[in-house]
């Protein structure tokens, strides 16, 4: 069985804890015979058994705090042993706490410090008092002696321990009260209440209660960009009414770790004098102004600081040249582009500001272009007049940008604009009329003449092809006589030419380019057939069959100079080839006749002899060609006694017509006529062109 008793810790020895006999249900007189004895579970003996009374007595004074410390419960465990029969009983005795301990602070005096500029609400933590008692006998609250400046605040921790704090309720002034003496009392919850006290001494520290002051707190400085490095920007004017270290001011830039000021790379600050100087070149175009925050901190404890704000505004100078940007260039441009055609889009920018950034564009006035402002800082280069690739195949266009700064800055950019060809020029022959000569009987394919034409266009617009036109001026198509190489303009014969049939040809030649649409022009080549000595003289009188002889009778007494007859011949050739000469072929015997070399007249050269009845003459007619051609006729002259008549009167000789006798004159007239006709044709062709 288990018995349970309780006893307050402050009971004296001999105090009856419990009636064992009654609780065990045995008689008191049997306890001795059964040898009841107490066995303690601990090393110390705090209880004894009174066998005569059958009760459990306190053997020594109990101290709960010593036995169980701060444990919420404190129990002592005993064992009772009885014999006959042997029995074991467990006894648990709860030691009850009594308020036998007063609260006690770790130190009897607590010294605290607070600055005179501490704000109301400032808390000064205090040490917790200790009370070995438990429960309601432990520390219940704290009290603070009355004060105008301080009050007591008690906070409860998570484990239930109360934490005292002194709270500043009214501002301090060390110059009036340098030290405050207070008493802190800790009270427990026992009955009667016990308490413990501690002296609290609060020293008011002399504070750095005057911060540095910037005059003025916000200032502005104007500074030209590109000033030399090391130029003084400003010197801060800061005052601190404190003395000593509290009035000794140090300067520093105020930046944020998350966003460090860019100005720290451009400006330097003297920590002692407060001078701000440039330490890198300043560029208005990068930033026109800088906001600089400066911290002025004294050396007091605690240190106090003031803040100066400086705005540095840069004055722009004309240090940037204009920049030209060619956004788009349409090259090449057709030479027939209409005025106003956009050639290029040009942008211009200047990083300077104000007049320094106002830019105007210029191009040479002699160019057939002009600049048109599209919108701010954007221009269009357009044509202002007609273009002609044949005069200028391209233009080097220099665009010049000038700002309005002082001094002015300028820049220029040159680009090449190519002019694309259009087929606006017809081919042009070197001469509208040409003259060529060709020997008659030349082989087909013989080169006659090469015409030449030029076209100032380029590419396919200047690719020329030649052709011969059939204009119907001649009975037979001209293409049956001549052909032309379409690439180089060389004229060739298609067949052999016959001077005696055609003495001159008018060959119309057309040249055409490969443009679209194609353009063309024409020229006329007069081809004169040069006579060749291909015709032998033809004896028209006397006309005798081939192999026969012509018989002519003359008086036997004919005197020298007597006209016997006349040989008449013609030659189909012309010029030298048609110039005929007459002579007698040599014979074995001397003949008394002679022939006139040019006229062909045969006359008696010397007196005739009666012994000879007839004479056989061979008259040869030869032209003046190379090689020379000839014809001959045999004339048999008979001498008759009764023939006394002159050749021109007595003989039945057909008289040559005026045409035969004046053949050379006719030839000359024919050439003149042909020349006149040619001139008329040339005039007609020129009028047509």
From TrEMBL:
Residue stretches spanning the membrane: 663-687
Record-linked Pfam families: Cadherin, Cadherin_2
GO process terms (BP): homophilic cell adhesion via plasma membrane adhesion molecules
UniProt superkingdom: Eukaryota
Domain Cadherin residue range list: 6-105, 106-214, 215-324, 325-429, 430-539, 546-658
Keyword field contains Calcium: yes
Keywords assigned: Calcium, Cell adhesion, Cell membrane, Glycoprotein, Membrane, Repeat, Signal, Transmembrane, Transmembrane helix
Topology within the bilayer: Single-pass type I membrane protein
Alphabetized InterPro entries for the sequence: Cadherin-like_dom (IPR002126), Cadherin-like_sf (IPR015919), Cadherin_CS (IPR020894), Cadherin_N (IPR013164), Protocadherin/Cadherin-CA (IPR050174)
Keyword Repeat: yes
Entry's Gene Ontology molecular function annotations: calcium ion binding
GO cellular component: plasma membrane
Subcellular location: Cell membrane
Main location: membrane
Protein name, entry field: Protocadherin gamma-C3
Annotated organism of origin: Dicaeum eximium
């Amino acid at each position: 069985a288990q018995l349970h008793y309780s006893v307050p810790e402050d009971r004296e020895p001999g105090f009856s804890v419990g009636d064992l006999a009654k609780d065990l249900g045995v008689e008191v007189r049997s306890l001795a015979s059964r040898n009841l004895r107490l066995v303690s579970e601990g090393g110390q003996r705090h209880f004894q058994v009174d066998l005569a009374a059958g009760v459990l007595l306190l053997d020594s004074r109990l101290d709960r705090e010593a036995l169980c410390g701060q444990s919420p419960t404190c129990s002592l465990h005993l064992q009772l042993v009885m014999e006959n029969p042997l029995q074991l009983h467990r006894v648990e005795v709860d030691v009850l706490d009594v308020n036998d301990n007063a609260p006690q602070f770790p130190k009897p005096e607590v010294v605290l410090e607070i600055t005179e500029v501490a704000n109301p609400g400032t808390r000064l933590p205090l040490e917790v008092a200790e009370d070995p008692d438990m429960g309601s006998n432990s520390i219940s609250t704290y009290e603070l002696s009355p004060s105008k400046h301080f009050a007591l605040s008690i906070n409860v921790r998570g484990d239930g321990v109360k934490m005292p704090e002194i709270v500043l309720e009214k501002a301090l002034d060390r110059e009036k009260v340098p030290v405050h003496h207070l008493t802190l009392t800790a009270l427990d919850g026992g009955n009667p209440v016990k308490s413990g006290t501690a002296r609290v001494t609060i020293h008011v520290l002399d504070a750095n209660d005057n911060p540095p002051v910037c005059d003025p707190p916000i200032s502005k400085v104007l500074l030209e960009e590109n000033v030399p490095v090391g130029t003084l920007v400003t010197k801060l004017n800061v005052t601190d009414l404190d003395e000593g270290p509290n009035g000794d001011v140090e300067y520093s830039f105020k930046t944020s770790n998350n966003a460090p000021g860019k100005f720290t790379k451009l400006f330097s600050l003297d920590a002692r004098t407060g001078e701000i100087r440039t330490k890198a070149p300043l560029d208005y175009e990068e930033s026109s102004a800088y906001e600089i925050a400066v911290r002025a901190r004294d050396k007091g404890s605690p240190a106090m600081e003031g803040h100066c704000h400086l705005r540095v505004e840069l004055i722009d100078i004309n240090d940037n040249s204009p920049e030209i940007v060619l956004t788009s260039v349409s090259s090449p441009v057709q030479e027939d582009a209409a005025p106003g055609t956009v050639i290029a889009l040009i942008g211009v920018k200047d990083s300077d500001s104000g007049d320094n950034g106002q830019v105007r564009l210029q191009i040479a006035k002699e160019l057939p272009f002009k600049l048109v402002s599209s919108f701010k800082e954007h221009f269009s280069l357009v044509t202002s007049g007609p273009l002609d690739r044949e005069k200028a195949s391209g233009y080097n266009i220099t665009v010049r940008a000038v700002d309005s700064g002082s001094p002015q800055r300028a820049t220029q950019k040159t680009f090449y604009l190519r002019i694309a060809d259009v087929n606006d020029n017809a081919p042009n022959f070197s001469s509208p009329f040409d003259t060529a000569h060709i020997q008659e009987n030349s082989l087909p394919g013989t080169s006659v003449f090469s015409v030449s034409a030029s076209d100032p266009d380029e590419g396919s617009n200047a690719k020329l092809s030649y052709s011969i036109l059939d204009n119907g001026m001649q009975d037979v198509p001209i293409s049956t006589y001549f052909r032309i190489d379409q690439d180089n303009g060389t004229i060739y014969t298609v067949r052999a030419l016959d001077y005696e049939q055609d003495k001159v040809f008018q060959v119309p030649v057309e040249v055409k380019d490969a443009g679209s649409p194609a353009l063309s022009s024409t020229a006329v080549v007069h081809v004169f057939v040069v006579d060749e000595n291909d015709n032998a003289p033809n004896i028209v009188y006397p006309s005798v069959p081939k192999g026969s002889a012509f018989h002519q009778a003359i008086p036997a007494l004919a005197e020298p100079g007597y006209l016997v007859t006349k040989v008449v011949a013609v030659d189909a050739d012309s010029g030298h080839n048609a110039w005929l000469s007459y002579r007698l072929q040599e014979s074995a015997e001397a003949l008394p006749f002679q022939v006139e070399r040019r006229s062909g007249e045969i006359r008696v050269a010397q007196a005739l002899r009666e012994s000879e009845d007839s004479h056989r003459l061979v008259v040869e007619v030869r032209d003046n060609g190379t090689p020379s051609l000839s014809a001959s006729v045999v004339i048999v002259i008979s001498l008759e006694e009764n023939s006394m008549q002159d050749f021109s009167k007595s003989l039945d000789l057909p008289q040559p017509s005026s045409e035969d006798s004046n053949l050379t004159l006719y030839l000359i007239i024919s050439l003149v006529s042909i020349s006149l006709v040619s001139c008329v044709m040339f005039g007609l062709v020129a009028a047509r062109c």
